[in-house]
């Protein structure tokens, strides 16, 4: 199997997806067959090179998306429906009050992770 093709295809699938993808999602989405462990290894390499970020939405597995500097999307968070599993991107992030108090502590170059869960509009109704 062609490794370079696999890498390109994984990056392509991540770049066109509107939500972060799990290893399983990738396995189903890829244009050619390869085993899960190969995808897993490739993703780990991407992670080491900072090409992809790992996202934990408390589902018992990780999801992946392209790292921010590689994508036109700006910094964002996710919300996942606890019933149907739908995932949406949250485009804005206003944690300026936290940043102010962290700056007062003398820290710079802050990063944070913050993920939400709830019931989507469809699941709230039923
Ligand atoms: Zn739902
Ligand atoms: Zn944020």
**Roughly how many Å apart are the termini?**
47 Å
What is the arithmetic mean of pLDDT?
89
Strand content: 15-25%
Alpha plus pi helix count? 5
Name the ligand types. zinc ion
Query: Based on CA inertia axes, which overall geometry fits?
Result: flat
**What is the CA-based Rg, rounded?**
17 Å
- Percent of residues in helices comes to 25-40%
Low-confidence stretches: none
Structural class: alpha+beta
Along the chain, the helix and strand elements come as HEHHEEEEHEH
Quickly describe the structure.
With 126 residues, this protein is an alpha+beta fold.
Question: Can you characterise this structure?
Answer:
The protein has 126 residues and is of the alpha+beta class. 38% of the residues lie in helices and 20% in strands. It is flat, with a radius of gyration of 17 Å. The chain starts with a helix and ends with a helix. The protein binds zinc ion (ZN) (2 copies). One zinc ion binds next to loops. The site of one zinc ion has 8 residues, from α5.
Task: Summarize the helices and strands and which ones pair or pack.
Elements: H1 3-16, E1 21-22, H2 23-29, H3 36-48, E2 52-56, E3 62-66, E4 77-81, E5 87-90, H4 96-104, E6 115-118, H5 121-125
Parallel strand pairs: 4-6
Antiparallel strand pairs: 1-3, 2-3, 4-5
Bound molecules: zinc ion (2 copies).
One zinc ion (ZN) binds next to loops.
